[in-house]
Fold:
Amino acid sequence: EPEVTQTPSHQVTQMGQEVILRCVPISNHLYFYWYRQILGQKVEFLVSFYNNEISEKSEIFDDQFSVERPDGSNFTLKIRSTKLEDSAMYFCASSEDRGAGNTIYFGEGSWLTVV
Amino acid sequence: GQNIDQPTEMTATEGAIVQINCTYQTSGFNGLFWYQQHAGEAPTFLSYNVLDGLEEKGRFSSFLSRSKGYSYLLLKELQMKDSASYLCAVRGTGGGKLIFGQGTELSVKP
Structure:
C-alpha cells in the first residue's frame, strides 16, 4: 500500500538553528499538508499546499516556517530559526483531492527536539 | 470559530462495545473523519462520514448527524490492541485541511 514517508525520524537541534524536514507524499496525490503535535496535545494544522503554492495556513505558520516542493516527489518544511517551543512531532500528510470523500494519509512523523 | 469536543479518556473491557462521541462547531464542513493514534505514532485512518447516517467498516462504525454537529465512533469486540487515542477531525472547505479534536484515550482492560 502506498504511504507517505518522512525523514528524519528524529532530530535534535540547537535553538536558533535551521531545520529542514522532508516528506515524500503518495505519488498520485495532489494536496500536501504539514501538521504538528506537541507532546500530550492535539494534532494541529500548519499548512496546506497545492499546485506549487500554499493554499491555506494557520496562525502557527509564521515567517519562521516555509514549505517547498523542490522536485516532483519531495515536499519540505523549513524552520529558519528554531525555538524551544518548536519541539514537537511534525507530520506530513497528503490526499488525492480536497473533496469530502478523499482521505488524508499521514506519514510516520519527524520528532524534533530543540535544546 | 472552530471547536471539536470529545471525552478525554474512556475505559472499556476486552470483548465489549464502546462508543466515543464527538461534537463539533466549524465554519466549513466537508466530512468528519476518525483516526486512531498509538503513542508516538502517526494517526491512521479509520472511517469517515460525509452524509448523515451510519458507516460500517468491520469492527468499526461511525455515525454522523450534521444538523446536531454530532458524530460517534463505535468499536465492537474490543481487543487489547485497540488501546489508543481516537481522534475526531472535521475536514474544512478551501484547502481541505483537517481540524482535530483533543483525542479520546481509550484503555481496554482484560
